Amino acid sequence: MKRLFRTAAVLLMCIFIAGMPFSGINSRAAVSCVWPLDSSYQRITCYFDPNRNNGGSGHNAIDIDADEGANIYAVYGGVCVSAGWMGDYGNLIILRHDGLGVYTFYAHCSSMHVSAGQAVSAGEVIGGVGATGVASGNHLHFGICDNLLGGYPDVTYYDPLTYFTFDGTISGDPGNTECDCSEEYAGTYTTSGVTSYLNIRSGHGSEYDIVGQIQPGEEFTVTKANSQWAHVVCNGVSGFCSMEFIKRIGEVQSSVTISGETVPTGDMAVGASFAVKGKISSALPLAQVAAGIYSPDGSETYYKSTASPNAMTFDLAAFDNEMLFNKLAEGSYLYYVSATDSGGNTYDLVRGQFSVGTPQQTVGDGDINGDGRISIADAVVMQGYLLADVKLTAEQMASADLTGDGRVDAFDMLVMRRLIIG
Hints:
elongated, 5 helices, Immunoglobulin-like, SH3 type barrels, Glucose Permease (Domain IIA), 4 domains, disordered N terminus
């Protein structure tokens, strides 16, 4: 009887398992997405190695050969988890795709045009190709993983060439390689005839992935459109929605602002570093952002960096590694940042004049006891300090440092003697 029950149980288990859908990686249908580079860059120099998932040292991504500065596109809509320096990866951008349950990562970037917490659409420019970190040349190290460990990509890794199918639309507009949308539609819009919500999609068409939603009556921005689909920005989410369910309620006025910016002023020592920071926000898509170090009259350029974000925000920190303040020779300079929006309006955002040179040493006045004159009494105080019998305050130390070398010693006593004797 027990054998009969065991046999029946095994049979029922087999039937149950046979009826379950197999969820192994190999059975998963490939996800359609955008190629991470322009169509001219498709030569793969190093392929994914699955041994990396078994504790081996295999390659956890694919390497795609490309020129320095070439646009890197988000292959799928998501949210930027981090964008910064990550050891051997150099400048690394990591995106989270909640709908897929995975991360995509883009390494060795020369520049980064997104920041943590920023929502991105498929096909949006997120950075530029480079060779930062450990890299033998300019290329994109592009991978997919399930987890992060200490902020770094971690197992399980997936082969991008089998996880994704690339639709070939590798421009900033994933819906059409040749977008016929016009800025004449630009303005402030709200929903029309929407009772639940209006989907924001990753391309021109209802077949594209949903990357966000617009609530009934909510106001949002349209940057351009055609008679069917609009480029929209709503609550930080960029994408596309149907023109059938929206109506314009106002014009978009050009406006570009910057916050949290750093501006070099005054004197800087030769070799001193300076951190480039600032968050640029625009009412219209940013067509170009430029930063540079020039001669005071602007006639000579020492360093210059440009980006074409095609987005409403841009983080100047992307230029930090390219503005080499520590390489400047002695002289006077101008640090200048400008931005141009899609309407052709250019804004001067940062203009800081500064000098680079050897800082002048501050020489003490010798009036150690603070009585308004230099006398033998000051020499007695200094002698007491040199013999370790007297302690000096910070103000007294500054007054006693007559040679300007940052300390008080016998050489300062010699200067004191000359001041008293004359």
